[in-house]
User: Which sequence fits this backbone?
């Protein structure tokens, strides 16, 4: 049974990014359909998989991480406009029976990702 998970690490503080807003969308035709809006928990993860079982289908997905709002809520002074605002990660699911873990490592000035396990 496949599943999609994520977590966010705040590389500026060396801690999980608790409370970051994430939007999950799927590409349908020429537009993005929002599937979920949620926030990370104290461990920088979501409380449950984003999608699992029959809900995870072959296709193109996007995770949108609200990086600037997260750092602003921490009281960090950001440029206007901020260097990073909302970070989109677009990825494909070829095998819906597999586990796709898509983390974000971020600071106000940089981000990276990978396919985790």
Assistant:
């Amino acid at each position: 049974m496949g599943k999609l998970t994520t977590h966010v690490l705040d590389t500026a503080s060396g801690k999980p990014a608790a409370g970051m807003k994430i939007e999950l969308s799927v590409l349908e035709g020429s537009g993005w359909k929002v599937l979920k809006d949620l926030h990370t928990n104290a461990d920088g993860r979501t409380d449950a998989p984003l999608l699992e079982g029959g809900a995870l289908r072959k296709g193109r997905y996007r995770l949108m991480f609200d990086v600037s709002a997260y750092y602003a809520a921490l009281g960090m002074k950001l440029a206007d406009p901020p260097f990073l605002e909302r970070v989109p990660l677009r990825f494909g699911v070829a095998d819906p029976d597999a586990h796709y873990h898509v983390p974000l490592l971020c600071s106000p000035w940089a981000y990276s990702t990978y396919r985790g396990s």
About this structure: Residues 66 and 86 are 4 Å apart (CA to CA). The longest strand covers residues 31-39.
